[in-house]
Amino acid sequence: MNRSLGEGIVAELKGVNKTFLVPGPLPWNPRREVAAVCDFNLRLREGEVVALVGQSGSGKTTISRILLGLEEPTSGEVWLDGHRWDGLSEGARRPRRAAFQYVPQDAMAALDPQQSALDTVMETLRVLGGCSAPEAEEKAVAMLQRLGLGARRHALPREMSGGEQRRVTLARVLALEPRLVVADEPTSGLDPDRRHTVLEDLIGNLPPKAACVLVTHDMEEARDWCHRIYAMLAGRVIEEVDLHAGPPLHPYARLLFDPWSGPAPRHGLAPTGCPFSPDCPQASGVEGGRCSRERPSLRRGRADDHRIACHAGSSLEAL
Ligand code: SF4
Asked: Of 121, 125, 142, 190, whose CA is between 20 and 30 Å from 236?
């Protein structure tokens, strides 16, 4: 991955929280609040690609949806290209919608079964990009050719392979020349070769000053394609790290990247203290049982651009 960073800020999340109301365990129990995301902060520079990693339910998808205005935060602020984005009506967002795009996980479900690859990209360019029909066709053909789908432009979704369907969803987004792309596990279900090609197509064809958020379970993808990683657990960032500057230090983030770095978790997440405390091999070394009593906050780690939420502090660097 070879993208240089600009000075401008494409997206910013400030102290974002999101809670959902869910039914109680029994029909007669009142509904209760569940925190999906807590105190999330993010600053994305021009050209930057960051990964959100973590297990299912860690809050990655909720953050992606909040970033694009598909979900409203309960509190906190969302800024895109210097404009406040949360709380706006859809009408107020519409003029800038084309600049902030989403690549869905399920490409087949996202495509109209009656539309060819060419029609799909053209329609997006006409509706969101404001292009005339001839202009939309010219741009759509050029983008499909760039992604190796020139000869397949008249194929319907059911006539395409899984990789081709995904490339159509990418063509649709990239043809709009977006400022921000949020890709929600764009390679899930593909074999390793196709995964690499899809990411090459996506990140290799982003406009130079566009930023990208990649939601992934695949740590190699995160390492190979991203400038920074946000490792998430139970709705919070537990480590923010540039993997090119050093490996993750948080015991849970280390397990995500290297399942052999410690025993496999056998318990659920703790409701108080550090959520990873029931399974953390380092918890016994932290004085006063702090891990099970006190939730660690995100603090500066080994460098200015490294932040970590763990009571074990600098002792993690010696592991
Ligand atoms: S705070 Fe304690 S339990 Fe949590 S990761 Fe750090 S050492 Fe482990």
From this structure: 190
